[in-house]
Every structure is written in C-alpha cells, then in structure tokens.
Amino acid sequence: MLSVSSLRSMVLKFNQHRWINQQCQLCQLPLSNNESIWCRHCIAHFPQPPHCARCGTTTINPVEQCGQCLRSPPPWHRLYRLGEYDFPLKQIIHQLKFNGKFWLAKPLAEQFVLYLDQPAPLILPVPLHATRRFNRGFNQSAHLAWAIAEVTNSQCIANGFKRQRYTKVQKQLTKNERKKNVHQAFILKIKSLPKHVAIVDDVVTTGSTVAELTRLLLNNGVERVDVYCICYTPSIE
Fold first, then answer.
1. Are the C-beta atoms of residues 226 and 204 closer than 8 Å to each other?
2. Strand order through the sheet with 224-232
3. Predicted TM-score of the model (pTM)
4. What mean pLDDT is predicted for residues 16-25?
C-alpha cells in the first residue's frame, strides 16, 4: 500500500504535467488547450438542480430550508454539493473511488468551490476503517479534502476523526439501519478546533455518517459545521 506522502506526491506530479493531445476522461474526445481532464461539454452536464441548502435534498426551487428541515433539521449548518449522484458525476466518483484515479480529486475540488461561498478554516474528511483503507489503498474523502483545502487555502487534517470499529457498507442499508450502523463508530482526535469546521465526503445519502461526525464536533465547542460532498443521492427509507 502506498503511503499518504507518496500518493500526494504522485497527485502533485500528475497535476503539474502537461499532457499533449489528452482526451476527456468521460467522452474520450480530444481536449482543447484551455481544457483539462474533462471537456466543457461534459462539465456542462454536471447535474446541479435546485436543492435545499440545509440538507441537500433536491427541490423545485432553491431554498434555505425545506419542509423536512423545518420539522427536523440535520445537526450541521449547511450542505454544499457539486451535484446529484447521476451521470457524469457518478462515473467520476467510481473512477476516483474504485479505479484508483485519485488525481481526479483536484479538478473535482475546483468545480466544487465554484458553489462554496464561506469556506471553513478547517476541513476534516470522513475516515475509513483501517481495514477498508488497507484494502482500497487510500481514502477518497481525504484526497477530496486535501484538494478543497488547497483551493480554498484552508487547513486539512486527514486523521482528525478515527473510525474506531468496523461498520457494514452503508450502501445496502436503510436509513434507520445506517444510523445504528455508525452510532458511536467514531472518535475525534483533535483537541483544539476553530468555530467553523467542514466535513468532506464523496457521496451523501441519508447523512447518517456526517451527522454522527457533526455531533462530535458540536460537543467539542465547534459552533458551525458544514458538509462538503461531491454527490448527493436521494435518501432511502
């Protein structure tokens, strides 16, 4: 397994390299001189429908809080998202997460911050259990957090949280099962925290994981917690 420093070095070298006749990583068409990774046509299809600024759920019109949030608001202050878990973002996340294309974190971060109006001074990624991180070789949320922190000039602490017990994969669980699955699964390792902190995850569905991490931060003096995610996917019951 590559070390964190080795992975970051590889990402830096990739970003600094100027590819000739590079193809779009989605449609495979040649990129123009002012395009990188994806062509402007594919970027234009990044799904960004109106949504609730509080929980992230898709709405007819942009709202600060949807009806569900008015009844039962999530513990965090605001959720920022690049788009929905649909083509082409779904394919990009799969390339990053399962095909080891961790260099995609930087261009994703550059697109994400276009929608970010109040960057947090400290960014913490959702942690992977040591076993899962060993099997995958890296934590995709950590790479996204590093990239967002670089673009926004924020601090990123990749090991700020620790997953203290192995949990089932959330994908196949219902909303209630997800809450139980991550309950008391994490510990906060940082003692000194700013008033405003952001949590980074690649995909948010029910928000059970980021809610559990948010409560840890709020219980330790943080006043505002934002959630940064690339994709939001509709909640499952």
1. no
2. 78-84, 224-232, 196-204, 122-125, 155-156
3. 0.83
4. 62
